[in-house]
Amino acid sequence: MKRKYLIRFSAAVAALGLLTFLAWSFLEIHPRRRWIPPSREARANEYLALDRWLQAMGHPVRVVRSGSLSTISGAEERRVFVQASLFTWAPGAAPQLIRWIEEGGSLFLVLDYQAEWEFWNNAPLLLLLEEFGIEATKGSRVRWHRDGSGVPSFGQEFSFEVSQDEDESILALEDWAGITRLVQVQHGMGRLIVSGRPRFLFSQFLDSEPNTRLAWALFAADAAHGNENGWLFIRGPTRAQGLLGSLFTHGNLWVLGVSALVFLAIGFWAVVPMFGLVRRDDERPGKPLRERFIAEGRFFKTYDALGFYRDVYIKEIRRRLAKKEGISADDEIIEHILNTVSKTGKEKEGQMLISAIRKEPIKYREFPKMISIFKTILERI
After folding, report:
1. Which terminus of the chain has a smaller tally of CB atoms within 10 A, N or C?
2. 341, 331 in Cβ contact below 8 A?
């Protein structure tokens, strides 16, 4: 390696080492949190974390969007999660569900917000709750309190009252305000669980310790008794909203319509021309042909290219003479010119034409006269 390259390489290494030392001494790296929005799958399924958690613990999960009594009785799973608004409540559903629970089935019944309007007219559902001594009341909402951080995140659409509170087979869970939000009743070999919307099972709340403990107790604790055939969920997916869905849900369509009309009006105003006569621009008179010809000649003179014009005229004269007189060689053309000049007496013009055919150097002062002679010859041929 040459000495000068070695010096440059050493200087670059030293500069890099100095920059590294300064960065290490004076700069600090701080971790930065970046919020990543939930995926479309998570927005479409609010129980996604619960499903994955149960499957990771060895509890298979199967989800159907609607169901009836035959769905439960024909299922291999003995643990069923039912969203009340998506279940077909046949007139004889209550006695058969009670029998299914007695035989070892676990039924988690969710009174979701979609069922509020039809809840009080649903005789099979009310009969099922009455058989277990449960009375449901809707609309008992309370404001959340900071002291309730150790309480699971219950839904507040419904509250419950149990007629046999001291029975050991009944478990009633209350929120921080002392309102019963979830009831579990042991019956025969199975159990019935009733609650409002189970917010403690949603993905955004499941990472809280009270919610995790309650979810494990309801969904996984009975696995120690040999009940490991998974869970059947009868629930509807939450549809993930895109741009149009959010706009139609939260936006104002009147504002959207007016904005679209204004946008179209501006677009047409910018694109479509005004009505009426088209404005006519007056043409500016160009320079005379003589001035343009002289300017062009000066341009060719600057670059010693005046022969360009001469060659064009000579080429055309050759073509016409070959067509009319049958001569094309330079000697024949020169002889023809001399004969013609001797008859007309224009020796100077003939000599200028002969010098042009021989491509002799052009004198700029004689150039206009030469072009004029060429035009005259073309007119006579």
Report:
1. N
2. no
CA distances from 320 to 173, 242, 246, 343, 350 (A): 116, 80, 83, 21, 17
CA distance 179 to 156: 9
Domain ranges of the chain: 40-234, 289-380
* pTM for the structure as a whole: 0.55
The maximal CA–CA distance of the chain, rounded, in angstroms, is 148
* Coil, strand or helix at 354: helix
Name residue, tokens 């009975």.
Answer: 222
Kindly give, in sequence order, each residue whose CB lies less than 8 Å from that of residue 10, ignoring residues fewer than 6 positions away: none
Tokens found for residue 226: 């040999």
The model's pLDDT over 47-58, given as tens digits with 9 standing for 90+, comes to: 999 999 999 988
Residues 206/87/231/149 CA torsion (nearest 10 deg): 20
pLDDT digits (tens, 9 = 90+) for 312-355: 777 787 787 777 777 767 677 777 666 665 666 666 666 777 77
